[in-house]
TrEMBL record:
Residue ranges annotated for the Fibronectin type-III domain, each copy included: 111-246, 350-449
Presence of the UniProt keyword Signal in the record: yes
Keyword ATP-binding attributed: no
Subcellular location: Membrane
Record GO terms (molecular function): cytokine receptor activity
InterPro entries with a match to the protein in the record: FN3_dom, FN3_sf, Growth/epo_recpt_lig-bind, Ig-like_fold
Protein's name according to its UniProt entry: TPOR protein
Membrane topology: Single-pass type I membrane protein
Keyword annotations of the record: Glycoprotein, Membrane, Receptor, Signal, Transmembrane, Transmembrane helix
High-level lineage: Eukaryota, Metazoa, Chordata, Craniata, Vertebrata
Biased composition (Gly residues): 451-460
Region (Disordered), start-end ranges: 153-188, 448-472
Source organism per UniProt: Cochlearius cochlearius
Length: 472
């Protein structure tokens, strides 16, 4: 019975006598016969040039077959020495089966040891590592990894490939560490499994995985065919690891108002008031062989209304930024992780609103003048001006030339207008989102107003936007 799982892996070997070695220091051989045939005659099993008898044990195999098994004495197991096997009919002394082999060519090796899996620190990636199955033959094996979502056991496993060739370091904070799954490894590949790239490394980065999914992962080994050879061994027991969820699931948005600090905001279900939120950040690895920065915890956290959360931190200058939000809850699963892919500070700018410093009205022409929200970005800022009749919802939005600091609008006389301006970095280096609109100013364009000065005031409306034309 202990032989059966290993024997099934030799089903594709075209020999009458099937043999395997688990450690290259042992050897087991067997052959199968129909039960009636086995009962009608007796066979003897011999090996070596000088025929040496082996004590054969017999097992019932399946419904109508008999399996004869020889486990070789350890003193007769020698590497790189041809071994001649013979099965003789005891009645006629005729050879029924024979085979010549070497022990180093029939390896059937156990799965790798100490398999671990964890998040690799990048979107859709898990890092899997293991140790060789035999300590005396560390560099003699090929490995194959397969994985599938833990929630879909009926799905065939996918076979891992390792196109990156890069070894990530160990992040100090990760969504899930490896655990042994409840399902045991199977002896053969599931139907429909795509056999992919085989590798000699004792680690692999699984890529293009789904976010927020727990995966079951298995590894198997095989002699590499150089000095040692054989067949694929059994799959390991499954280990489990989880990819972090997408940052979009919690609306995670990060930006910098001043090119020094980063403010991240996200929202959470108000039905879970007892959750604990932590944000971590770091610079992603810059390439193969480089040391990873440790995750830093963001300390300046705040909680707003309607389940909104925010945290502000100052990242290391001159590098991209990765962000991870861990949300701990009082029920299972206790911690959910949300990962935002790396971004650069200069591409995530969200400035304060521009400041209107001069607003004048003369003969139906409104002149607006403002200061850029961040002087360092002055030459790379686009602006929009919008205006509407006071207490109206019909905004006219005008695009202003890049880096401009003033605009003149032709207004119809006989009404009071609200006007605002906003900015967006859109240059070759600095990029980002539109700022909030500036505080509204109210101007009087009545026919008899003549020259007038705008004043700050509340327009009190947020409405649809209608495109307008810039004054000539």
């Amino acid at each position: 019975p202990m032989l059966l799982p290993d024997a099934a892996l030799l089903a594709g070997v075209p020999e009458d006598i099937l043999c395997f070695s688990r450690s290259f220091e042992d050897l087991t051989c067997f052959w199968d016969e129909e039960e009636e045939e086995a009962a009608s005659r007796t066979c003897h099993f011999y090996y070596r040039d000088v025929l040496t008898a082996c004590a054969v044990s017999t097992w019932r195999h399946g419904a109508s077959r008999t399996r004869h098994v020889c486990v070789f004495p350890s003193q007769d197991v020698r590497l790189f020495t041809p071994l001649h096997l013979h099965v003789l009919n005891a009645t006629t002394n005729q050879t029924k089966y024979w085979r010549e082999l070497s022990v180093e060519a029939v390896g059937l090796i156990a799965p790798p040891a100490n398999i671990t899996a964890r998040w690799a620190g990048a979107a859709g990636q898990l890092y899997v590592s293991w140790q060789p199955p035999l300590v005396d033959y560390l560099n003699f094996f090929l490995y194959e990894v397969r994985h599938c979502p833990a929630s879909s056991p009926e799905m065939p496993f996918s076979t891992a490939q390792d196109p990156s060739g890069q070894r990530p370091g160990d992040p100090s904070i990760r969504p899930a560490s490896s655990t042994h799954a409840s399902t045991a490894g199977v002896a053969t590949a599931s139907p429909g499994v795509e056999q992919g790239l085989v590798q000699t490394n004792t680690w692999v980065v699984l890529q293009d995985l789904q976010p927020g999914v727990r995966y079951h992962i298995q590894v198997r080994s095989k002699p590499d065919g150089t000095s040692m050879d054989g067949v694929w061994g059994p799959w390991s027991q499954a280990v489990a690891a989880e990819t972090p969820h997408s940052s979009g699931d919690i609306g995670l948005y990060c930006s910098t108002p001043d090119l020094q600090h980063v403010r991240c905001e996200w929202s959470w279900d108000t039905a879970e008031p007892h959750s604990s939120h932590q944000l971590f950040y770091r610079a992603p690895p810059s390439g193969a062989g480089t040391r990873e920065d440790a995750w830093q915890r963001c300390e300046e956290a705040s909680v707003g209304a309607q389940g909104s959360h925010a945290c502000t931190f100052q990242p290391r200058a001159g590098s991209a930024i990765s962000v991870l939000v861990n949300i701990t809850r009082p029920h299972v699963p206790p911690t959910l992780s949300y990962f935002k892919e790396p971004f650069w500070l200069h591409q995530a700018v969200l400035t304060e609103a521009p400041q209107l410093v001069q607003v004048t009205m003369s003969q139906g022409r409104l002149s607006l003048q403002w200061l850029p929200p961040l002087e360092a970005l002055a030459e790379q800022l686009d602006y929009q001006v919008r205006y509407a009749v006071e207490n109206s919802h019909d905004w006219k939005v005008l695009q202003v030339p890049r880096a401009a600091r003033k605009e003149v609008l032709d207004l119809r006389p006989g009404a009071r207008y609200c006007a605002q301006v906003r900015a967006q970095p859109s240059g070759p280096w600095y990029q980002g989102s539109w700022s909030a609109w500036s505080k509204p100013v109210v101007v009087d364009a009545t026919a008899d107003a003549g020259k007038g000065q705008g004043r700050s005031g509340g327009c009190g409306h947020r409405s649809h936007t209608a495109k307008g034309r810039r004054a000539r």
